[in-house]
Amino acid sequence: MSERFEGSFTQQEPIPDEGIEAAMRVMQHGRLHRYNTHGDEIAEAALLEEEFAEQVGAKYCLAVASGGVAMSTALRASGVKHGDAVLTNAFTLAPVPGAIAAVGGVPVYVEVTADLVIDLDDLAAKVGQAKVLLLSHMRGHICDMERVMAICNAAGVTVIEDCAHTMGAAWDGVPSGRWGRFGCYSTQTYKHVNSGEGGLLISDDAEGMARAIMLSGSYMLFEKHRAAPPIETFAQIKYETPNISGRMDNLRAAILRPQLRKLSEQAGKWNARYRAVEAGLRDVPGLTLIVRPEKESFVASSFQFLLSDWSSEAVADVIARCAKRGVELKWFGGAEPKGFTSRYDSWRYADVPDLPETDKVLAGIIDMRLPLTFSLDDCAQIARIIRAEVGAVWQEVGVS
Questions:
Q1: What is the per-residue pLDDT across 262-286, written as a single tens digit (0 to 9) for each?
Q2: Between helices 206-216 and 67-77, what is the axis angle to 10°?
Q3: Residue 265: exposed, middle, or buried by beta-carbon count in 10 A (0-12, 13-18, 19+)?
Q4: What's the fold here for domain 17-261?
Q5: What whole-number distance in Å separates Cα of residue 117 and Cα of residue 384?
Q6: Where are the domains of the chain?
Q7: Are 61 and 167 contacting, i.e. CB atoms less than 8 angstroms apart?
Q8: Out of 1, 3, 135, 330, which residue is the most buried by the measure of CB atoms under 10 Å away?
Q9: Architecture field, domain 263-397
């Protein structure tokens, strides 16, 4: 009888004991609001910002309510206004164009490559159409950041990095989020640290971060921030920047601080699971693995492969067969959005362009979560199941 995987693709590890204890202290004293402190107490949110800034080598950090809030705040702080065009990857998740739309911007989609990163030739061709690039490191894949910055700097384009899937990752030794004007991170449950919802925003730009802090809803309490620009930076900004409340609370910050201290250790565990699946899927006819560049230091909380040039029926058959054996695969090529796998032609609040290269890539992208509740043996079993079902469909339908 065929083996079946019995694990859950959505079950995360428990919050560490240290995080639970910190959360209990916050609940016991009741000061959940980040600006509600007693005496010389330093808020958990302020400590989180200070510690994360130090961890990634940034001057400034702001804790917010979600990764989407981090992106929309960065866009507003960078001067994006109603009707402004913003470049972004055509392969990303809905919160990225959603953040652009939230500030009244208009997404301009850039093609993606079979390596699942932004097509830099297409970026070079389109870079004159906007003043901002919201670059999504989609599903943890980082493009050639030196070339991105060269293209954008030459054109006077501000780069904002969406690092929802690359917290702890780097390109050529430089942490993800440290290349552009802003780096935006998510602490939603399925990301590298878990507070249910939440986000972090980093920058070395004093004026930009002062605007971000005011936008987040600091009122005139910005002096309580520690990983923040000098107070004098706010002198005029405080009068001209709207309050669009999107703060993180102390409860979530307390849960996150211990997790961030373990991020490097957790990254090693994720990558070991990624390599176990990768090893099990090598040399499968019809299945293409994604090449990871030498300069990319990734944190693989998910796994992707391509079924390039397969019919939609054959891809759907693979997904159904794997599901029957307990392996949950997601497909970004489906005509209708399902779960988180919507694609650029599903976001009809913006113009839907003609992107033939992206369409070709999307048609074959298969995605799978890799929670740390999986063991290495689990990952090997998952790979065996995928290998068997891809092989069976390949033989049955004669894909070529």
A1: 999 999 999 999 999 999 999 999 9
A2: 130
A3: exposed
A4: Aspartate Aminotransferase; domain 2 (3.40.640)
A5: 27
A6: 17-261, 263-397
A7: no
A8: 135
A9: Alpha-Beta Complex (3.90)
